[in-house]
């Protein structure tokens, strides 16, 4: 058996980050269902305290629709955090294992693994941030903040690392 | 050249990174429109006892009572009497008046709020769109009943809605300011409909 025919584990800290992310996702999912009423009540009260931010006009027929949309998106943000954190934990384990096994250059391997881990762990937190921001700054502003602070940098890091890893694997296939 | 390649790569990365899921929202019925649909379907199925129970226990009757001062006198009692006497066209006519009144009151309130000179153009268009959505949610439920009785009114309301939506979606400040005129027209046409329908005991077409 050649050294290349066996899978190599990524560094332990990477596995710790991935497992911790999955743990956070599970705790988040459980909390969502256990405290759903309390979360909704809190978000609604924060929004009602900021009528200008949400464009509330003081007419129930108009405002209920605005509040309903914001609460649906607030709930969606929490759900998407739960799902992405679960999924990205597994993605980190899978992709860093491929990188640890197939990327020969040590510096490149370290950078790819770092990008995959940081990007994968950070990206889902954007949904948590977005959900938390919705009651305070509104749907669109909250989305913009989450995009520029989390989704684009961390999502970008993951995409860069995945393209890089794809290139390395393809190159090895060609050179075989 | 390297800088261009780097820029292209950066754009290729940023574009998909920004394309994340944020969920979709489909506006839901409120308790009044839900109750209306339940009553309407019961009437269509000829289940008058069910329609009467839904009316007695539902949000629609509560809203009629709450807004009684702005409605033609006896609207709630007349609707109940029509359901009790199994008179579907009369019940439908009274429900049409109620929803036309809801839409009219929203149009008047929108006109009043949009008159605020301190509102920015963005706030004005956002507010206009939200009021139009709320008005349409009510008017849309009875548009068929309106058009089957008074086609001109239905057309006038629809045209005014289209015009108002155009102004509410526009980017130009001068266009956004024109939003109030079609709102006032909607309120006027619906007021005429309510007054005309309230004096007529039966279908006039």
Brief descriptors of the model:
heterodimer, A: 176 residues, mainly alpha, 85% helix, elongated, B: 205 residues, 10 helices
Task: Explain the overall architecture.
The complex is a heterodimer of chains A (176) and B (205). By secondary structure, chain A is mainly α. Chain A has one domain. In chain A, 85% of the residues lie in helices and 0% in strands. By secondary structure, chain B is mainly α. Chain B has one domain. In chain B, helix 5 runs antiparallel to helix 6, helix 6 packs antiparallel against helix 10 and helix 8 runs antiparallel to helix 10. The longest helix of chain B is centred in the middle third of the chain and has 29 residues. Chain B is globular, with a radius of gyration of 22 Å. The N and C termini of chain B lie far apart (75 Å). At the A-B interface, helix 4 and helix 7 of A face helix 1, helix 6 and helix 7 of B.
Task: Give the termini distance of chain B in whole angstroms.
Answer: 75 Å
> Sheet bearing the most strands of chain A, described?
none
State which percent range the strand residues of chain A make up.
Answer: under 5%
Overall domain count of chain A? 1
Topology pattern of chain B, helix = H, strand = E: HHHHHHHHHH
Number of helical runs of chain A?
7
What is the structural class of chain A? mainly alpha
Question: Mind telling me the C-alpha Rg of chain B?
Answer: 22 Å
Run of helices and strands of chain A: HHHHHHH
Backbone CA Rg of chain A: 21 Å
Which percent range describes the beta-strand content of chain B? under 5%
The termini of chain A sit apart by: 17 Å
> How many helices of chain B?
10
Helical residue percent of chain B?
over 70%
Number of domains of chain B: 1
Number of strands of chain A: 0
Question: What's the mean pLDDT score of chain B?
Answer: 86
Low-confidence stretches of chain B: none
What is the SS-derived class of chain B?
A: mainly alpha
In terms of per-residue confidence, which ranges of chain A show pLDDT below 50 for 5 or more consecutive residues? none
Extended strand count of chain B: 0
């Amino acid at each position: 058996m050649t050294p290349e025919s066996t899978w190599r584990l990524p560094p332990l800290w990477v596995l710790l980050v991935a497992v911790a992310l999955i743990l956070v996702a599970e705790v988040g999912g459980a909390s969502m269902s256990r405290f759903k009423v309390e979360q909704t009540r809190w978000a609604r009260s924060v929004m009602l305290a900021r009528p200008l931010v949400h464009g509330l006009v003081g007419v129930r027929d108009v405002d209920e629709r605005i509040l309903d949309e914001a609460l649906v998106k607030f709930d969606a943000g929490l759900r998407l955090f739960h799902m992405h954190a679960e999924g990205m934990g597994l993605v980190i384990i899978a992709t860093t294992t491929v990188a640890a096994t197939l990327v020969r250059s040590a510096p490149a391997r370290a950078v790819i693994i770092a990008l995959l881990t940081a990007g994968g762990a950070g990206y889902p937190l954007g949904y948590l941030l977005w959900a938390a921001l919705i009651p305070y700054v509104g749907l669109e502003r909250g989305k913009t903040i989450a995009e520029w602070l989390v989704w684009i940098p961390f999502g970008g890091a993951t995409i860069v690392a995945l393209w890089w890893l794809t290139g390395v694997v393809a190159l090895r296939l060609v050179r075989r | 050249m390297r800088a261009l390649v780097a820029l292209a790569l950066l754009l290729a990365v940023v574009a998909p990174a920004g394309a994340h899921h944020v969920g979709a929202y489909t506006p839901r019925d409120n308790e009044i429109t839900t109750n209306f649909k339940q009553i309407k379907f019961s009437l269509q199925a000829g289940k008058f006892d069910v329609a009467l129970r839904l009316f007695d226990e539902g949000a629609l009757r509560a809203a009629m009572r709450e807004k009684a001062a702005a409605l033609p006198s006896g609207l709630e009692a007349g609707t109940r009497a029509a359901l009790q006497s199994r008179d579907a066209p009369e019940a439908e006519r009274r429900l049409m008046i109620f929803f036309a009144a809801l839409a009219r009151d929203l149009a008047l309130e929108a006109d009043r709020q949009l008159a605020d000179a301190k509102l920015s153009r963005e706030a004005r268009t956002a507010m206009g769109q939200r009021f139009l959505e709320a008005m349409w949610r009510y008017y849309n439920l009875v548009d068929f009943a309106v058009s089957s009785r008074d086609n001109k009114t239905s057309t006038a309301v629809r045209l005014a809605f289209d015009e108002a939506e155009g102004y509410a979606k526009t980017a130009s400040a001068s266009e956004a300011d024109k939003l109030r005129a079609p709102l006032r027209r909607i309120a006027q046409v619906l007021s005429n409909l309510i007054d005309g329908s309230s004096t007529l005991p039966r279908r006039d077409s």
